[in-house]
Amino acid sequence: MADPSSYRPSPGQIPDSPGVYKFRDEHRRVIYVGKAKNLRQRVANYFQDLAHLHPRTRTMVTTAASVEWTVVSTEVEALQLEYTWIKEFDPRFNVKYRDDKSYPYLAVTLNEEFPRVQVMRGAKKKGVRYFGPYGHAWAIRETVDLMLRVFPVRTCSAGVFKNAARTGRPCLLGYIDKCSAPCVGRVTPEEHRELAEDFCDFMAGRTGTYIRRLEKDMMQAAEEMEYERAARLRDDAGALKRAMEKSAVVLADATDADLIAVAEDELEAALQIFHVRGGRVRGQRGWVTDKVEAVDTAGLVEHALQQLYGEERGDAVPKEVLVPALPEDTAAVSQWLAERRGAQVSLRIPQRGDKKDLMATVQRNAQQALGLHKTKRASDLTTRSRALEEIAEALGLDAAPLRIECYDISHLQGDDVVASMVVFEDGLARKSEYRRFQIKGFEGQDDVRSMHEVIGRRFKRYLQEKERTGEWEQTPPVSGEAPHPGQLPSPPGPGQEGVQAPAPTRPPSLPDTPQGAQAPTQGAPLPTDDTDPGDTDPRGSDGREDDGRPKRFAYPPQLVVVDGGQPQVAAARRALDELGIDDIAVCGLAKRLEEVWLPDDDDPVVLPRSSEGLYLLQRVRDEAHRFAITYQRSKRAKRIRSSPLDDVAGLGETRKQALIKHFGSVKKLRRATIEEICQVPGIGRRTAESVAAALAAAAPAAPAVNTATGEIMEEDDGGTS
């Protein structure tokens, strides 16, 4: 690692004009290219205290050995030169979108004497008109097959064309009237080029003219009793309509636009683009990139615009480009796009209407693409094994952590503080074993104390179960099945204790899904750590299920992961030490920097960006965060939707819903007599009196209850009745 001060230029050497700068390493390789309105200010920012730099920027400046710059006259020139150098030098610290697949285009070779319609991939060629990209090549071929009825343009290869011209016989398409057969002189080169240009016009969105012309010719042929010609024109118009139906109308005003959406996390970003031409989605493509430099959404959008339109011809740049965030220098980027197109380009964020709705669709596609990219690793057994081995090596564990538990704290400005516990076994999520906690030990916001409390509560029960049940015995087989050594416990039913006491640490080898274990009922609420004191445990006092298997969570994980940095890790380790547990590894994953923290270590463990272990830890952490925030939001919503019936002792959710369903609303229930309340199935007189009293106490004017008749007294403008 180099010391940036060793190659830092003096401020007077750097001009204060627009320009592009390059960082080079000790081997003179370009590792980063950037542009700036003011080179002096921008370059100086890289040479501040390293502790104040973003980790990725810090890595870049310590890898570099020199910096140089080139002055340009305008910001637009800086934008163009930056793109050119990124393409030329391929710097390792610049964001580079890698296409997640090779997208096919419908191409018309207008640079040839007899233009040809074909499927093309790869780099674009000069003089070729492109349409797309399409998701699949077969979609292009279906569209072309329909349109050749009306626009019989050549589709054959050069060899087939020359052979037909030599023999004087056209190919099969020429015989079935899906090619005008210019190879044998049925049409002149000028007539064939006109057909190709009409084909391009139709694909570009100018469809109404051709269909109206066909329908007009069809009606005229019918009037002249040329019924065969009229039928052929009818079929041609139908073929064009079917070709149009393959791309649904999404913008009614026949807009030409590209919509760009970005989904990102700390390590990667996925980008999706919808190409809308004539109000229809003509193509879609997606990229995935590593965030190798400190870049926000606006920066990702700017990089995407450069790489999307840097090599495109002018006619490929649409009138509108809709983005989720505007680049830092919007004016320069807009001017550059306008120069590429040869006309004004609107670069903006959609605010309302159909365009905003379509942007939401593109955003969902980007989120799904990022999720799919991340879960591809999780589906592969070899990859999961390698991830666990990398984690064990990085954390210094004796064996791969086949069972990982991750904890996260969630709250809203100190209210409704909750925690989550998620479980991964063999690198896969075990959602049936997730648990949720309410923080009980104190009020307010303190993530460190909350983490200490949650870890302490979970493993205190582990020790209690260990003392109560002793060492685990061989699990008896389920009826009709062979014994399964070390069989996992079955899940508890809804409403049971959320965190059960684990048993003594097992050997590193952890079995797969237990044979005969039944999953919780679909849709049943997951149990939390906060059961009512009066609840009874249907299992025996020895901590086993009715069939003799141990309780779920009756054994500890090999690794505890907490969402946070050094303070949260220290709190978790302290909670385990207070309980005398020293055989469970603890680490933390700090979200902003993606650094792994270990107890008592002042420096974090930095896993390589390509590490499968880092991806697994990130997935575990993100799942714990998702589960925690979902629970926190549900608690907040429940608190907001609180009802006076919540204060009635012994009145559960089922009977509350029955009351509301019977009377229609709390207001009507408040007006009901005790006898009327008793008519609701499951409501006795004592409960009805409690309901009436609770509603009376919660009423705005606190109406009284007539103890003789059971009527709820109401107030009106004239007094009580």
TrEMBL record:
It is found in: Cytoplasm. Residues 466-558 are annotated as: Disordered. Its main location: cytoplasm. The keyword DNA damage applies. HAMAP family: UvrC. This is UvrABC system protein C. Residues 208-243 form the UVR domain. Residues 536-550 have a biased composition (Basic and acidic residues). SUPFAM superfamilies: C-terminal UvrC-binding domain of UvrB, GIY-YIG endonuclease, RuvA domain 2-like. Belongs to the UvrC family. CDD domains: GIY-YIG_UvrC_Cho (cd10434).
